[in-house]
Amino acid sequence: MEHVRRKQWLMTAERYPSMTRTEKERVQKRMRDWVRLTPEQRAKARENYRGIKHLPEARKETIKKKWSAYENLPDQDKQGVRERHKSAILLAPPPAPESANSDEPASAAR
Questions:
Q1: Tens digit of each residue's pLDDT (9 = 90 or more) over 2-45
Q2: CB 19, CB 27: distance < 8 Å
Q3: Is residue 79 in a domain?
Q4: Is this prediction's pTM over 0.85?
Q5: What is the number of domains present in the chain?
Q6: Banded model confidence at residue 95, pLDDT cuts 50, 70, 90
Q7: 3-state secondary structure (DSSP) of residue 55
Q8: Is residue 33 domain-resident?
Q9: Which stretches of 1-110 are DSSP H helices?
Q10: Helix (H, G, I), strand (E, B) or coil at 107
Q11: Domain annotation covers residue 47
């Protein structure tokens, strides 16, 4: 195990006794989910995480909002998204249109 990952696990184990029940359940669920991944899926997850770390803050915030929208879906809808290989990005509402002059009608701006 890489030194950094080992250190993270040790820190989690050290904090575990003082976690709330909800936090413990969340940690346990994440561990179960991670264990179910294949080595290839884990590598892809790590790669995606590293890529997101280097994005501009505005893009990170957009991704967080879209992920939140996905997480709030009922389980059967999430399963449908996964089966259709759709990204959670598609689930977020489109951004609000920007209006330079809200006093002018759209046709007058041309």
A1: 888 889 889 989 999 999 999 999 999 988 998 999 999 999 98
A2: yes
A3: yes
A4: no
A5: 2
A6: low
A7: coil
A8: yes
A9: 3-15, 21-36, 39-53, 57-71, 75-83
A10: helix
A11: yes
Token output for 58:
């505005």
Task: Say which amino acid occupies 73.
Answer: L
Q: 81 with 70: CB under 8 angstroms?
A: yes
DSSP state of 102: T
Tell me which amino acid residue 58 is: A
Residue-wise pLDDT for 31-88, tens only, equals: 899 899 999 999 998 888 888 888 899 988 988 888 888 888 888 888 887 777 665 4
Report angle CA 87, 93, 46 to the nearest 5 degrees.
30
Q: What is the domain range of residue 63?
A: 57-90
Cα(43)–Cα(49) distance, integer angstroms: 10
Going 49 to 54 to 55 to 61, the CA torsion angle's sign is positive
